[in-house]
Amino acid sequence: MHKGIRNWGPPLLLISPTIIILGIFVYGLIGANVSVAMSDRHSLQPATAFVGLDNFIALLTEDRFLHSLVNLGVFTLFFMVGTMVFGFLWAWILDKGVTAEGTFRSIYLFPMAVSFVASGVVWRWLLNSATGERASGLNRLFETIGLGFLQNSWWNTPIWGMAAIAMPAIWQLSGYVMALFLSGFRGIPEELREAARMDGATEWQLYRHVIFPQLSPVALSALVIVAHMSLKVFDLIMSITGSIYQTEVPATYMWVALTSNDYAKSAAIATVLLLLVCVFIVPYLIWVSRSERRAR
Amino acid sequence: MTSTVPRIDASTDQARATRPARSSRAGRRHLSRTAKYTILVLFVIVVLMPVYVLLVTSLKPPADVNPATSWGLPVRWPWESATPGGPTGFDNWSTAWEALAAPIGRTFLLAIPAALISALLGSMNGFVLSRWRFPYADVVFTFILFGMFIPYQAIMTPLVQMKTSLGMPSNIWTLLIVHIIYGLPICTLIFRNYYVGIPHELMEAARVDGSGMLGTYWRIVLPLSLPGFVVTIIWQFTSAWNDFLFAMFLTNAQGGPVSLALVNLSQGAQLANYGAAMAGALIASVPTLVVYILLGKYFIGGLMSGSVKS
Question: Does residue B2 belong to any structural domain of this protein?
Fold first, then answer.
């Protein structure tokens, strides 16, 4: 026993401040958040009663909150599909061997270094909803290059307007997904491709049976990462449209609730958001820790 | 996470060696050279288009802002005004600079210490978790890791209440503490993955020489940690610089960082003043872009090994 403590005592001591801090600021505050969400603290006055799930029931039957969930769903769908398609396409082409590959890679990845707030400034201009004479931004560009029929009111369209908000997000994150896929492609041993070709596999069979299965862990990581970023989207929307109803998602609705001092409501929205993220993250973390243990 | 998300910088070197053989075979048959480069260049144009818009719009004086010519280059030099004595293109830049200079200074005061302190703590944690077995080490690691996936909204309401009840200021000093705390998981992860790659024999040798855990860390591990520190510091600096969520909830315009000031500049401005907002977006992005251009390899290293954070 004494020897045991000597062995793992010092490391535990070194890491304990982190454990305590995260215990308080992650787990403790999540607990506090849930308890606010189950109280009747709808103003600056302290809570007077425990109301159980009432706030959640109210939220899930409220049109405004359901509208924000639908918006989030549309945004997430386009964001995920867009980044996966472009990220895969770029990585696939670059993997085929390209002169100045590093330059292409750096350009595709550069939007990652810019904040959503800064890119929001220019995308707000690009997604200007005016059409015809007064059109600027992308609508004006379409007009100029003879694609005028593509003009639309972007995020000003109910529901599907969220697809327009996904465009800057796709612009920003596709390079990242490309980098993930590229590392996946590079991780496939050349012998595997070689062996498949020796067996007379067609190019499609090679992809179907060798390359796609080898890429699936990377694709899964990319999907989970993009999905969890998407569910949290806040900066981009605040920067492009501000917290308006049209483009409201749970994260911006939570801001509106908190700034009007409805603590119970903002905490309840945040709890729903956390649960949504957990749907993706918890199985992913379990999968990662399992595959790490297997690798050891 | 090493197993699922390999690092790009290591694997590209390997690929460079195999590429000539590969490109001369299968690849080219199925996608012609022209098609390949056409697609790539087309996407370069699409990706860089917002930068073009930022530059040309920021250099046009308000009088020249006209939807019909909004995609064109400025029609006069940025130091010339459209009307005698009127504002010039450069005036957009000075307006933006006036609005952002003080917040940029504060953001440096925030992002640099946040990056240094987080990296140091992450290094110690990563060392412990990569080398020292104690009961439930895996559980502890997952417990730490979870903290970087949560939507920060889930802790924001009580955090704001806590800040109010402790009487903490609405400025960057509160943000500094917050960034250090919520940066711990990712910094720990980056260093743990980095230290797993250090040969075990080195540690064993130190242990045989009678070094304790701290001695091993100090004499063997820390001197080997420079690349890990570069990756982590860049990562934390960029996250702190680009953060908007915590800034919005915990600070105000008088004491907040550059992201908040930029949103105020751009939301306050309507079409007539888009130039200043665009100039501001460029100015606010300079530090992270410089880091990306000079130290891109390490920036990508952080993205890959940390691979998860918004």
Answer: no
Closest CB from A94, A121, A232 relative to B151 = A232
Range of the domain at B289: 8-306
Is the CB of A133 inside 8 Å of chain B's CB atoms? Answer: yes
Distance CA B77, CA B98 (A): 22
- Tens digits of per-residue pLDDT, B142-164? 888 899 889 999 999 999 999 99
- A10 neighbourhood in chain B, CB within 8 Å: 132, 212-214
ipTM at complex level:
0.89
Only one residue has tokens 């100015």, namely B283
The rounded distance, in Å, linking the Cα atoms of B281 and B99 is 12
pLDDT given for residue A221 in this prediction? 87
Query: What are the sequence ranges of the domains in chain A?
Result: 63-249+280-295
Task: Establish if B72 touches chain A: CB-CB under 8 angstroms.
Answer: no
Q: Is residue B3 part of a domain?
A: no
Most confident of A100-104, B58-62, B133-137: A100-104
Name B130's Cβ contacts closer than 8 Å, sequence gap at least 6: B191, B192, B193, B195, B196, B198
Report yes or no: A42 at the B interface, CB cutoff 8 Å: no
Q: Which residue has the tokens 């939220």?
A: A59
Which residue in A190, A225, A239 is closest to B308 by CB distance?
Answer: A225
Q: Chain B contacts of A136, Cβ < 8 Å?
A: 67, 70
Q: Give the count of domains, chain B.
A: 1
Please tell me which residue, A14 or B282, carries the higher pLDDT value: B282
A&B contacts, CB < 8 Å: 303
Cα Rg of chain A (Å, integer): 24
Do B40 and A231 lie within an 8 Å CB cutoff? no
Spatial separation of the C-alpha atoms in residues B257 and B100, rounded to whole Å: 9
Assign residue B171 the CATH number of its domain: 1.10.3720.10
| Nearest by Cα to B295 from B237, B249, B256, B210 | B237
Q: Say yes or no: B165 contacts chain A, CB-CB below 8 A.
A: no
Q: Which pLDDT belongs to residue B242?
A: 93
Task: Locate all alpha helices (DSSP H) within chain B, ordered by sequence.
Answer: 8-22, 28-30, 33-58, 89-131, 137-146, 153-166, 172-196, 200-208, 213-216, 226-242, 245-250, 258-268, 274-294, 296-306
Closest-CA residue in chain A for B130? A11
pLDDT band at B11 (very low <50, low <70, confident <90, very high): very low
**Homologous superfamily (CATH) for A63-249+280-295:** MetI-like (1.10.3720.10)
Please check the confidence at residue A277 and state whether its pLDDT lies above 80.
yes
